[in-house]
Design brief:
Blueprint (H helix, E strand, L loop, with lengths): L11 H27 L3 H18 L4
Helix pairs in contact: 1-2
């Protein structure tokens, strides 16, 4: 059985990196969305999908 995820068990440097990534992911997603709306390419759609997936993982505490 899998134990629950506890971010406080991480080393301090990883906890800080996780905090800053969690704070920066939404503005990066917004920028990528605007870029995708202006110049839509397959790469932009894939990158936006990956970024949204990472954002959901951060806010659901999967990462």
């Amino acid at each position: 059985m899998r134990r629950k995820y506890n971010p406080y068990l991480l080393p301090t440097c990883l906890r800080k990196a996780r905090f800053y990534c969690k704070a920066a992911i939404i503005p990066v997603c917004c920028f990528q969305l605007i870029r995708t709306l202006i110049v839509p390419t397959t790469g932009d759609f894939l990158l936006l999908a990956v970024l949204v997936g990472i954002a959901v993982a951060f806010y659901k505490d999967l990462i």
